[in-house]
Amino acid sequence: MIPRATACNTAVLPAAQATTPQAVVVAVPGTTARTPTQTTTATEMSPSGSVPGDYPARFRSAPERSRRIARPLRRVARVKTDDEELLHEIGRRLRTRDELGAQLAGAMRIRDRDDPERVTFAQLRQALNHGIGAVDDPPPALARFFAVVDAVPEWVDFDQVERGARIMREMGRSVDDVMLQLALIGGYRFGGPPDLLVATGGLVGATAMRRLGETQKWALSVLEPNGMRRTGAGFVATVHVRVMHALVNHEFETNGRWDVDRWGLPINQTDASATLGLFNSTLLLGIRALGWIVTADQSRAVMHLWKYVGWLMGVDEDWLFDTEQEQNRHNYHLVLVQAEPTSAGPALARALVEGQLTRDRGRLTALRNRYERARLLSMLRYFLGAQGLRDLGLPSAVPWAVPPIVAANLVRSGLLVRAAAGRRYLERASGRFARRNQRAMFGAATPEVGALPS
């Protein structure tokens, strides 16, 4: 029996089976300039000509299935009555975007080299790495963007941010397990974001493991000591990803390849908030399901870290939460509106499962790759259930890998974290795993997060 450290406990999980869909970390150019704000305007017409309240077809298109999958979150979040006003907002924001990012993306896609509004990738890199002051005569869109992201909100407590990152580093490989199995692959059970990933070519075939590695590289940078300070790797990578998302959104809003009336905007505020929910409260639910004891103070620190990350990513501020309870309630309502999976979800899931066989793990690579594939399927069975595996077209498995992980995590989180030496040991072990994992993904190449064009 895992001790009850907070209101959310593994007793209500594998039923951690309710996860929300995710946006993408990909690099595709794109554009039109719009008025920049940190939050999205409420009265904007969508590219399809519809008005707010005219929901995309995906909205609540599979109510019985969604309610079944959301049932565990309903218990965890102690939701007694569905919030119809929140559901309306979720539907509306399927058609709203990160306006500040969209305005910058528009300026970056101006073709006229003499246009004073044009922003180059070189200027963006300079501002990202050295500050807007390092850019000679910065274009207005670039200056406005960095005026927002460089201004730390009053509510940010960097001591809490650092504590949240350290706590996640101590959790080691279990963080990667939850993020890959419960969050990423679990999110492929719903239509929408997976279809965009397939459209960008980002997670199929030979690119599957590289894109996964890029996402993991970004998360590792967020968790570095001082990573979310202005010059930290996590800050730079997070703002970089925000711009890439804005470019992808513009590209697919305007190229005629994306069905806005069916799915909403390619990268919208609803899906962005769902992605954030995977990294905070879904991570905490999943980590408890793997035996890690999380105290209320630790939970608040992890939530605070990702609240700041979400703000930098351009998630609407009223959808940034301080507590698991609030986030889980929000996530529950997000699951209620989801669509059935399309062929994209199973294709992505299979690419990541079979991609385990392509990694270079050094000695005995073939044997270790087969073990890792079997381990992944075993843990997916635990997190997603038999029906979840069927939804994704994955082979059935037995969750044999989970009991030893739970036992080890109980020792780590119940004993080792109580002593400074134990915490240092856990951080070192986590770092070693991360380095091995990145080498298996990238080999001798330097991992990057969606490298900017020259």
Automatic annotation (TrEMBL):
Sample GO molecular function, one term: oxidoreductase activity
Domain ER-bound oxygenase mpaB/mpaB'/Rubber oxygenase catalytic: residue ranges: 204-397
InterPro entries: Lcp-like (IPR037473), MPAB/Lcp_cat_dom (IPR018713)
Superkingdom of this protein's organism: Bacteria
Coiled coil region boundaries: none
Sequence ranges of Low complexity compositional bias: 34-43
Residue span of region Disordered: 34-64
PANTHER family named in the record: ER-BOUND OXYGENASE MPAB_MPAB'_RUBBER OXYGENASE CATALYTIC DOMAIN-CONTAINING PROTEIN (PTHR37539:SF1), SECRETED PROTEIN-RELATED (PTHR37539)
The name this protein goes by in its record: ER-bound oxygenase mpaB/mpaB'/Rubber oxygenase catalytic domain-containing protein
Species this protein is from: Parafrankia irregularis
